[in-house]
Design a protein that fits this description.
single chain, alpha+beta, mini-chromosome maintenance (MCM) complex, chain A, domain 1, OB fold (Dihydrolipoamide Acetyltransferase, E2P), Rubrerythrin, domain 2, 3 domains, five-stranded mixed beta barrel, two-stranded parallel sheet, globular, binds zinc ion
Amino acid sequence: MTPKRMTEPDSQSQEILHTWRKIFEKKYSNELDAISRYEEDVFGFNVEWEDLVGSQLHSLFPNNPNKALDLGNQVLLEQFQNRNCRTIPKIRIVDLPDDFHYVIDDLRMRDANRLLNFDAVVTKVDNPMGWLKVSKYTCRDCGHVWEIEQRLARERIRAKYCSICLEELLAKSKKERFIPPENIEMVVHENEYSDVQYVELSSPLGLSNIDEAYNIRAVISDEYVGTLKPGSRININAFVRIDHLPNRDYQLDTRRVLLLDIHSIEFGFKYYRYSLD
Ligand SMILES: [Zn+2]
């Protein structure tokens, strides 16, 4: 794999990389040795919440999961490669403490962006699909290559000019007018795609009355795609996100729905107990 970032990581990122390295080396080295025999394309690697406590990851993961996980996945990939394993690992944080537990029916807009834990029943499963996660561009003039991270179900962000050529132009032309360096193109075969699948969930309380159950849309990614069926009973850790109505977009319609962006799944309920009758 080509390195993702050409520049040195900033000091906060260096510290986070170091923290992840410590966690994997101290707590997971036996597991990592065992996993080197795996031959899957993508493999979910469970990390206990407990192992984040006492480090900056403890607050970074709930508040900036992309940063925490991007850096962690980078370190984990190194660990896999050191063991000659070609599988791409994905960190899945599991076993969140009880105070993250929440009930699907109680979700409201004020809960947006919270990381919460739910027992849930899968009520509907859509077809798997892909999305453009990272698009790559190159400058025809100077050869500079860069990436743009896209967001799921949002308008694609397009590159407008080459930042290297622009810097040069600015240095040369002082404050005169100039044409921005737009001689760029997308490197289509190097774009990165990811698998996702939309599902619908209801709280286990809806099991007894499926017609009246409140359903919420949720999205799963990578190794989880294809693993859920209607009726699956699961416990999930998910970020609560705000989404537009299906078949609408943010510009056309102000109505919003909540969407669960599922980070990790454990099978079976953790909190809900059946009544005996
Ligand atoms: Zn350029």
